[in-house]
Amino acid sequence: MISSVQEQVLVEQDGHVAIITLNRPEKLNAVTQEMSEELTRLANEINDDASVRAVVLTGAGERSFSAGSDISSLDKYRSPWEFRNRIDYCDALRELRKPIIAAVNGFAFGGGLETAMICDIRIASTTAKLAAPEVKLGWIGGGGMSAFLAHSAGASNAALMLLTGEPIDAETALRFGLVSEVVTPEELLPRARALASVIATRPPIAIETAKANLRASRTMPFDQAMAYERDLQTICFATEDAAEGRAAFAEKRAANFSGR
User: Fold this and answer.
1) Is 181 a catalytic residue?
2) 12 annotated active-site
3) Are 36 and 89 in contact (CB under 8 A)?
4) Buried/exposed 51-84: b ≥16 CB within 10 Å, e otherwise
5) Does position 66 have pLDDT exceeding 90, yes or no?
6) Contact between residue 2 and residue 13 where contact means Cβ atoms under 8 Å apart
7) Over 90: is that where the pLDDT of 159 sits?
8) Catalytic: which of 45, 114, 186, 244?
9) Closest CA to 57 of 1, 111, 5, 131
10) C-alpha angle 224-179-150 in degrees, rounded to nearest 5
11) Dihedral sign (CA 174, 180, 184, 186)
12) How far apart are CA 55 and CA 115, in angstroms?
């Protein structure tokens, strides 16, 4: 069973789904270095734990998913080089092989938006506000902000957000392609958990392979992406889960996938 050792990062495991909650609502769930280290530890633990097949990531309270890095903690770095080589929660979450669903409640600003964009699926509350405000303070995002926005929202919409630093609302985020669904605040976490539960019923190797293939397709030339997909398909086809899936289909019964 996955557990947290840091009270500002909560973890609950419901069957094969892990729910991670950034738990600093009084500071809009801004992430400290200690929280970043805990998220890194949890990401490694989840990758190694076969009992977890999907993850939901959200923020405590109604006001904020995450306002990004705690700006007051940035002055702790003794040099720009130390800042460059810090343990970064965005890097850790990007290394998760399991699917991640972001339940975006309230503000997703700066590193909070990057955190949401790292997730494979994003569901937003009607109260959500998304922004890349770093330019207002004299820097830019460093957790993949530009690449994620350009890929998902298109160059013009990405530029609109990156160059103004102004927030967009949930419906605009939906129109830009930054989120998949917009639901009421009351529906947000139940919808994210239900979606994660569906994903958790699928064969784990195929799910992790599908995620890896999708990410690779963003950077590969088309012919290489097709060849890579065929190779991954062949690997999946050789698993016990694939044999179970074929048998269950033939026998008209529910499949029992083991992750082998």
Assistant:
1) no
2) no
3) yes
4) ebbbbbbbbbbebbbbbbbbeeeeeeeeeeeeee
5) yes
6) yes
7) yes
8) 114
9) 111
10) 50
11) negative
12) 13
More reliable by pLDDT, 77 or 9: 9
Token code pair at residue 185 = 């605040």
Angle between helix 240-251 and helix 204-217 axes, rounded to 10 deg? 110
Task: Return the bridge partners of 56, or none.
Answer: 19, 101
Q: Which of 71, 70, 57, 50 is nearest to 12 (CA)?
A: 57
Query: Can you read off the two tokens belonging to residue 229?
Result: 């997909």
Tell me what the pLDDT averaged over the chain comes to: 91
pLDDT band, very low/low/confident/very high, at 137 (cuts 50, 70, 90): confident
Here the tokens at position 206 are 């195929």
Of 12, 37, 45, 134, the active-site residue reads 134
Strand partners, 59: 22
Task: Give the whole-number percent of the chain exceeding pLDDT 70.
Answer: 94
